[in-house]
Specification:
single chain, 456 residues, Rossmann fold, Transcription Regulator spoIIAA, 5-stranded parallel beta sheet, 5-stranded mixed barrel, 35% helix, binds S-adenosyl-L-homocysteine, binds FE3-S4 cluster
Amino acid sequence: MKFVNSYKEKIKKYNEKHHLTYHIDTMGCSMNENDSNKYAGILESMGFEREDDEKKANLILFNTCCIRENAEKTLFGRIGALKRQKLKNKDVYIAVVGCMTQQKHIIEKIKESYRFVDIVLGTSCMSLFPEKVYESIIQNNSKIEYIDVSNNLEEEVPIKYEDQYRASVSIIYGCNNFCSYCIVPYVRGRERSREKEAILADIKKLAKAGYKEITLLGQNVNSYGNDLKEKYTFPMLLKDIEAIDGIEIIKFISPHPKDFKEDLIEVIKSSKKIARQIHLPLQSGSTKILKEMNRKYTKDEFLEIVKKLKEADESISISTDIIVGFPGETEEDFMETLDVVKKVQFNQIYMFIYSKRNGTKAASMQDDTLPQEKVKRLQRLKKFHEEQISNNNRKMIGQVYQVLVEGKSKTNETLYTGRTSQNKIVIFEASDKEIGKIKNIKIESDHLWYLKGKIE
Ligand code: SAH
Ligand code: SF4
Ligand code: F3S
């Protein structure tokens, strides 16, 4: 479905006089962030101006996430705190969109206790957004209702990227995997692959505009194409993107180990542009727990993919997601996870304590592990991983890496920052004219989460 904004001119006209501003709070994953870029794109096309300070903005948009249980508390705390601002100033509007508002009970709660909220939309509802803005701001007549369009696929939505050189492009929406702990399939609908022409056209446009790094997004990027009429797979898409002049770095998140096949490894091996850093979510190292999680691979199968990737190119580093304290996880299961961490030497681990999500299969599983024990496991995992990182960082000293100069370091005015192809943050002396260029940097010293180097 093509995105059509029939309210654009009217709202733009209104904004010529009123100069309304917007502020977006992105609370979720990279797909959520990509949606925020689209909301920003739509709002700017209607004449809204960005305002970094939430307290000064006219339209405050919360792009929500519900992957973990405590997110609800945070969101309602934030909205509650805005009530005063809203009552004091009639030109303050609150919008709540994203995964959390795809759930009926959240809509009910907003209707009951947060009636001052103006706009509520779930996922894949971009097309309805301008109408909602029109209703609440110009007609002063907003309605909060549950709208289920989570299986929608919208094309040609305006998009506003924050960065000048790096951009994310969604290639597949939704998820069919139903991992037993996960709420995403319930709030993002079934898998919908975008047509190849639409993706390639977007990327060509970005390349023309000077973008150098593209991150392909999807809950399971390597099942891309399964639902397309013509045979067109994720590895084929990667090859076509490789051929686009101007794009120098290609990344993707997240592939699912169960769909990580030979053809994908081949494309990575022969590619000059695919980053030598692959995110491969493990979740658990215990085959028993993986089965309970409905992940459809074993510990050995995971290790086999890693082995093949390292054989394809030994400079590839791997990052991952791990959940500790899944219902039924014993000390032995946890030790299996540490064993995989030891064997793979992940360069980054996103660690989570299992969070019960109502409606998922795992929510009804027996969970005997004490919360304190789960916290302890998380701390043990963190410590174990950090020791490995330090050891590996030390080995990088003296080596030269190619780094895309992203910009000034946020913490040190005189230094610049970038990442190696393995996603290690490097800081170094440079000047503004080097921003956006790829430079050879020799590593001189190591710190836990970044390295210091010098342009060669
Ligand atoms: N589609 C992606 C990840 C989506 S969510 C994938 O399959 O890799 C990002 C991460 O959040 C997951 O990888 C998982 O580690 C974590 N996560 C998801 N549901 C969770 C839950 N109920 N409790 C704790 N962590 C969870
Ligand atoms: Fe959730 Fe699993 Fe789908 Fe990832 S693959 S979004 S973890 S159900
Ligand atoms: Fe959260 Fe939705 Fe992403 S639940 S993790 S924002 S897909």
